[in-house]
Amino acid sequence: MTFGERIRTNRIKNNMSQKQLAELLNVTPQTISKWENDLSEPGFQMITEMTNIFHISHDELFIGETEVLYQGSIYIAKKDLRMKKYYDFFVGLLIFLSVAMIITTTYISTLEMLTWHFTFGFGLFTMFWLFLLFMTSRWRYIYLDSPNDLLDIYHDKVVIQKGNLTVEGIKIKNIYIKKYQFYSGIRVYENNGFLKILTTDNQMLVVRDIIDIEDLKKVIYKMKINNIEEETK
Q: pLDDT value at position 124?
């Protein structure tokens, strides 16, 4: 049993939720989740406070072997709230560029010195910018329409908060987890990305703009699901 599992076991023995323990320790439930999933470790002061809360010794917390079956959520994947300003920026920029291209295309179409080939090509370029505007606006809408808590991860299932959709482990064919390489390339933000689930009935479920994607990946790989792989393309 790992140290994180011992924290979870003692919390359950004391009939506490992650939120209740977090309030007693003055931390966030996400912090408790990371401790219990061995994604980070509490400091010595926090460990001492937990032993007082659980009424156990330090030795019992570090070497205890009793395990309690836990059926609750083991991790909550959250939305990257920092991305809103970048969606707003890119949508605004593309609106400006699209309007500028439309005006320019309209103007050059009136110039007799230019052939229709030039005007047609410029029109196609304008359509390209309009397409980018449409796609970025769509992604922004999906982002704004999503709750701050995107996913609840259990040992044998995934619950997508938007629509309260539960995907049982036995119905999951593949899970793909990938960082946003584009954002990393332009140095916007590191360690955010998306999760894609393919079910046995060929449904595809995608959850975007997840923060701490590497932590989510580690938790997903602990789940009791056979067909988990990282997308490499």
A: 87
CA distance 112 to 108: 8
DSSP 3-state of 231: coil
Q: How far apart are CA 228 and CA 192, in angstroms?
A: 19
Check: CB of residue 143 under 8 Å from CB of residue 87.
yes
H helix intervals, 116-229: 116-145, 181-185, 213-220
Closest among 66, 68, 60 to 15, alpha carbons compared = 68
d(CA 116, CA 27): 65
CA-nearest of 39, 88, 38, 32 to 213 is: 39
The pLDDT value recorded for residue 185 is 52
Per-chain mean pLDDT for the chain:
85
* Residue 160 near residue 207 (C-beta atoms within 8 A): yes
Average pLDDT in the 157-181 region? 88
Residue in this structure with the two tokens 């910018």, named with its chain if needed:
129
- Closest Cα partner for 160 from 211, 196, 109, 120? 196
User: At 231, is the pLDDT very low, low, confident or very high (cuts 50, 70, 90)?
Assistant: very low
Q: How far, in Å, are 7, 62, 106, 112, 124 from residue 115 at the CA level?
A: 74, 79, 14, 7, 15
pLDDT digits 0-9 by tens, 76-97: 999 999 889 889 999 999 999 9
Tokens of 129: 């910018």
In this structure, the number of other CB atoms found within 10 A of the CB of residue 52 comes to 9
Residue 153: name the closest of 207, 193, 81 by CA: 207
For residue 92, which amino acid is it?
Answer: G
On whether the CB atoms of residues 172 and 160 are closer than 8 A, the answer is no
